[in-house]
Amino acid sequence: MALPAKIIERFNKRIRIFQDALQRAKDADRNESDTVAIITDILADVFGYDKYMEVTSELAIRGTYCDLAIKMDGKFQYLIECKSVGTELKENHLKQAADYGANSGIPWIVLTNGIEWQIHKIRFEQPISHELVCNFNLLQINPRKEEDQDKLFLLCKEGLSKDSREDYYEKMQCLNRFVIGGFILSEPVINVIRKELRKFAEGLKVDNEEIEKIIRQEVLKREILEGEDASKTQAKIRRFYKKQLKEKEACACVQSNISENVPQQENISSENQQKESAQ
């Protein structure tokens, strides 16, 4: 994704400042309150928010205040759970943040200690679950590297208007074990495997069903093939190939109609030429 020059410039100017500040804070073992203050400045100086109007610590969830939240146009965009800069982020911290998000109806949550940043999206299904969309280490981030710029942009104020986090999430949805496992079991891929096997072992007779059975039972893990996520992904892939087939058939139909009409046009042209000659 090509980001506006002013955002890249902001990254280049500000990231190094906060890398130094965070490292000093970690060495000094600053507490959670001090870390929240640094994170608030990062949200303003790196990610572009107005820390007085768009960053708040006043979001109460069932009698408890979350550490920080991003609020724009009257809507909470991110809920941010902060830990002290020296604290290792653990599963129980994520559960706390996810519970806050689920109870408040905010799907996008961030867990951070200032150095490590995790962006998660809550799926309001039954049961409620959450997925890691992106994570990065701010001490290791390179603001001149496009891949790192894209990660930073997910948290930027400007990224919200461009819906970059949803686009990024959709891409990440296509890069998981369920999708790859589903494609491996799809008919086009199994056809390729069968053809390559026949080249590899000349005279080998094997059909698609046998290959699929081996993949299911001996190659892929059971968790990739079973369960709600696996079923949804496999159905999505089937729809994808079905759509491709329809488009291919429609294209073939158009080509056929063109081919049938060409001789007719040629005959008409020939008849006109004969009439002109006769005149």
List the helices and strands and how they pair.
Layout: H1 5-27, H2 32-45, E1 55-56, E2 60-61, E3 64-65, E4 68-72, E5 75-82, H3 91-104, E6 108-112, E7 116-123, E8 129-137, H4 146-153, H5 157-161, H6 164-173, H7 177-184, H8 187-200, H9 208-219, H10 222-225, H11 228-278
Parallel strand pairs: 5-6
Antiparallel strand pairs: 1-4, 2-3, 4-5, 6-7, 7-8
Helix pairs in contact: 1-2, 7-11
Short summary of the structure?
The protein is of the alpha+beta class and 279 residues long.
Description:
The structure is a single chain. With 279 residues, the chain is of the alpha+beta class. It is built from 11 helices and 8 strands. It has helices at residues 5-27, 32-45, 91-104, 146-153, 157-161, 164-173, 177-184, 187-200, 208-219, 222-225, 228-278; strands spanning 55-56, 60-61, 64-65, 68-72, 75-82, 108-112, 116-123, 129-137. Helix 1 packs antiparallel against helix 2 and helix 7 (177-184) crosses helix 11 (228-278). 23% of the residues are buried.
| Helix content range | 55-70%
Strand content: 5-15%
Low-confidence parts, pLDDT < 50 over ≥5 residues? none
The biggest sheet, with number of strands, parallel, antiparallel or mixed sense and barrel status, is: 6 strands, mixed
Rounded mean pLDDT score: 86
Number of helices: 11
Please give the radius of gyration in angstroms: 28 Å
Q: Ends: how far apart?
A: 66 Å
Compute the number of strand runs: 8
Give the strand line-up of the largest sheet.
1-4-5-6-7-8
Q: Decide which structural class fits the backbone.
A: alpha+beta
Order of helices and strands: HHEEEEEHEEEHHHHHHHH
Shape, per Cα inertia axes? elongated
